[in-house]
Amino acid sequence: MTIQNDRLTILIVDDVAINIQVLANCLSDDYHIKVANNGEQCLQLAQTSPLPDLILLNIEMPGMDGYEVCLNLKAIESTSDVPIIFVTAHDTEDDEEQGLALGAVDYLTKPIQPALVKARINAHMELKRQRDQLAKMTFNDELTELYNRHYLFETGNQHVSKALRHGHSLSLLIACLDHFETSDQVALKELLRSIAKLFSEITRNEDVVAYFEKCKFAILLDHCELLSAQKKAEHFRQKIARLEFRGKSITASFGLAELKPEGEHFNLLLKRVEMALYDAQNSGGNCVICSEI
Fold first, then answer.
1. What's the pLDDT tens digit per position in 164-177?
2. What is the pLDDT of residues 274-284, one digit of tens each?
3. 73-76, long-range: CB within 8 Å, 24+ apart, which pairs?
4. Rounded to whole angstroms, what are the CA distances from 139 to 136, 148, 190, 212, 218?
5. I need a labelling partner for 177 at 20 to 30 A (CA). Which of 76, 81, 170, 211 fits?
6. What CATH architecture does domain 9-138 belong to?
7. This model's pTM is above 0.70
8. Is there a shared CATH topology between the 9-138 domain and the 149-291 domain?
9. What distances in angstroms separate CA 155 from CA 4, 39, 71, 272, one per listed residue?
């Protein structure tokens, strides 16, 4: 799913309440603020919506210190690219080099100078906006605002490798609108946006929903075995069948497959899904066909 929020989010991590208050007072007018009091809470909130666009991370904390938290954040796929700025009372070159070597983008020293903090944060947030815009242009479909085919292949290979490495299930489905023909391109675009909105609303945050090609949508279902994926696909099919667009009933055919536990490339998984979709369309459409493992 894709979630859009114009107000960027900063996660402040510090075990001292007054330090959090000082930073929050500097930034709360311009950004949504989340707060964590220790490293474990930071790791949890960093993966909880709204996801942070930047993390201000204190180094000196009991238990898990900032350096260890940073290493953990960089090892988690969903947080690995979130910019981290270390905040510390130490300002030696060795400390700064260590932080930057771990993947931090900047270093702020205490006591906090509000004007300097605002300027540095604003600069990094502008870079974040530019990176996000570039990623959107590269990986998002302009019409539906879903991920595009290129992103599906990019992330599909990553998800397959991760599933095989950790031994968890992964399923892929493709839905294709049945027998929908119109010369009215405006109407077609309106319909595709409606279907895209429907899929975005009824899928999980961890699912990858993409506009695959003409009238086809792909959904990558992580931690989802074939039977569960089949139930989801049937639910999606029924939701689409209840739609009516400009006096016409809408139906869709679904092809579905689960990643083979002994291993296969994403391209092979996709090929099995497309063959199942072909069978669904040749069976009259408006149905779900699974490719058996």
1. 988 999 999 999 99
2. 999 999 999 99
3. 73/42, 73/43, 73/46, 74/102, 74/103, 76/43, 76/46, 76/47
4. 5, 6, 21, 12, 14
5. 170
6. 3-Layer(aba) Sandwich (3.40)
7. no
8. no
9. 19, 28, 22, 18
